[in-house]
Amino acid sequence: MTLSALRELHALIGVALDDIEAVYHTATTTTSTTPNGSATSQKPTRSSRAVHPYASPPPSPSIISFSPSSTLAPLDFPSLDEPSDPTSPSEALTSHPAVLNAINKIVAAAGQMSMTVQTPFHSICDATMGYNLASCMRLLEAAHIVEILRDAGPSGLHVRDIARITGVEQSKIAHCLRLLATHHFLRELSPDVFTNNRISSKLDTGKAVVDIQHDPAGKYRSTNGVSAFVGLSTDELQKASAYITEAYLLSPNATKNSENPSSAAFNFAFDCQGVGYFNWLEGEGAGAPTTEESVSPALSINQSPNSNSFRLQRFGVAMTGTDCWEVPGAVLSGFDWHNLAPGSTIVDVGGGIGSTSMILAHEFSHPDDPTALGLKFVIQDRPVVVEMGIKAWNENNSEFLERGIVEFQAHNFFLAQPIRDAAVYFLRVILHDWPDHYARQILLRLREAAATDTRLVIAGFILPLACAENMSSGDEDVDLTGIAGAGMESPPSPLLPNLGRASSHGYWMDLTMQATFNGKERTLRETVTLAASAGWKVTEFNKISGSIFGHVVAIPTHIPMETLEEIDQPDSAASSQHQVPISMDLEHDSYISRCTTPTLGSNTQLPSYGGRRTKMGFFRRAFGKWSTPKASAVKKPSPLSAASIASPSLSDDEFTSPRTSLEEPHLSPVAPDRSPRRQRSFAPYSDQVQSSPPSLAHHASFANLKPSISARMTPSSPLATRLLGRKASPEPPVISSPMSMSWGMTDSPAPSRKPLSNKRSEGFLSLSPFKSRNEASGSGGMKGRKIAFPDEPDKVEKPAPGELQAAAMIEKAKRKKARSRTRPASPF
Ligand SMILES: C[S@@+](CC[C@H](N)C(=O)[O-])C[C@H]1O[C@@H](n2cnc3c(N)ncnc32)[C@H](O)[C@@H]1O
């Protein structure tokens, strides 16, 4: 069995190589027949999104689009031995969807094969002593050896000379570089002579070594961020990760398994409990000068009092490439934007400087396009980021600001959402920064502001399980069956369902978020559970085939009782343990970074839309023009392919053959459907409750309370008050069944559809003291004036006469309930 499984993996590799060859072959022949490549101007369709192949990890930010007209020579796959040339057609073709899909399979199959055949102890050594690889990568980057080797040219450089330039002893550096060469990160051309290869050259900042030595912090400026990313990952992130066991297992109870972002593995590694990572980057709790500054005083920038200033600046650049986590333009197919009502408002919450909104605004609201859908975008972030965003858009996309298509707004997402009833609240790579408890607060703020037909779109990595997904009942008893797109692809056996090593990027990120912030990437079932705990029901999961970066779509539903109770007890043991202002009107500043690193993980420079569009065009062309021919059309089949062709088990599998996918364009040229989203069926709340994941059923909700009690219940905190929408229903609601509704909702049939932005979730929210959309935009929207977070509206809310009595009643009931519970002692 094992040998036949190995044969199958081997065969998969053969087919994948054929697929790659086919694409390169076609690109070459297409070039000679259609010199202009004739890109299509296609738009995404729902039907096309599920079959678009894409790999994870995604392409390097430096990959550019390939114009087929630019070459006439036969194309070969880029050589591992040569420095990468991002402008070459050969390199550009590596991001062709079919090639990416094939690469995925090769990486997955090869990884699985080597783990199968390698002596287990060697595999254990690879995992447990692999830290040396990261350490050598760090030395490579910190000593600028890539730039040194680049200057040396193709004949390479002897370690004697590398030692002289870097100051690292000759034998030591030789051994480090040889380890890297052994793992294909460099080449050893002749004894002790090294040169860059395709991988190491990715770290090349393009700067002269003397300039870097003179101005170390300037090394990363205006680069693609790869070098800074290597520095960041191999320095504080690697060190933080080394302390995961201390944080999760060995630490005293007070700090063990903490949900506090400032009590993560990182805090153990750097002995700075209570100081968040970003605060630390700004110098708080950083203590003595960092290693870099001790070793090289030149790194102490401008005699900065912050001993971490080098790391701080490096972090900012390292994050600039995060848009390459997803396929270019994937956001366009991540949600049914076309079916939004014209003029709908999309709130990009924690949107950074608006890189993703830029794609959407150009696609759906371009000022020069009279037929555009005219969607409006409000990009919210911390004041410092908003300032940067306005500057960036004024430089390149000012007409969007001037015409009110795009608006920036300083807003702390832990506080009440000022834009109510938006058509879409969009959260891109936000929730992974935060432990569940905090992420829930962010989602609750959006739930609180949502209309019944508001949609929540969560974009980010969704970690696939390493086993087959059980759609109806997993460990957490989460039902995924009602979620469109949840059970999409299954790679051919015997590959792991999540493609193993080919998906490792998402898992690296997951552990990095855990080690640094106690955040995490989440699986789909974790995302569904988290969303449900904040009153959002996941209905769709849209992702590009082969990618683990996806878009989760959710609709408002009832908020579980447990959540409401938690909100309502800011002084509970749980809240003090989390150290989060659960009522969210306290000291919120300590939970947002004061870090002036531009965007805490977002882009710091707004890419030109033209460049983005070219990348998207690449994919359009890829599907339109370069549809992959059958592997048999390639003259010279790979020797590896013989077994695979004979293998019947692979032939019908869509995943095995990207050719079926390619027949349907990912970004196809359909006219946007202008019909408002009325066509979509919209279940009444009673249905939603019934179809909620089973795990929610045991969560009490106000719907489960007897009317006589629930009608009088008045939560004590302002947020809970608004979430319950008590004032919205002056009359106690008629409750038809214990599970049929959430308190305050009228038990009405499905509302007829209206344009998204106009409908209120009345049962829950009409009590809100917040300003309407238009009023609110006046308070937070900005253009050239001082930027600050708006005041927390909670503070102005006062209970109505008579409500205090009801509040006292519920408080009493809660205290009774709380006494009966066993609570963990607060460690603080
Ligand atoms: C990983 S970035 C994602 C940015 C953007 N959504 C994107 O995809 O490029 C996280 C963003 O959250 C913002 N952020 C962090 N804390 C925040 C808070 N309390 N309120 C609003 N934004 C916050 C950061 O400034 C940063 O722009």
UniProtKB/TrEMBL annotation:
Transmembrane segments: none
Residue numbers spanned by region Disordered: 28-95, 630-698, 722-802
GO biological process: methylation
Biased composition annotated in UniProt, kind: Basic and acidic residues: 788-800
GO MF: O-methyltransferase activity
Keyword terms, alphabetized: Methyltransferase, S-adenosyl-L-methionine, Transferase
Biased composition (Low complexity): 28-41, 637-650
Domain of life: Eukaryota
Location of the O-methyltransferase C-terminal domain: 330-472
Protein name: O-methyltransferase C-terminal domain-containing protein
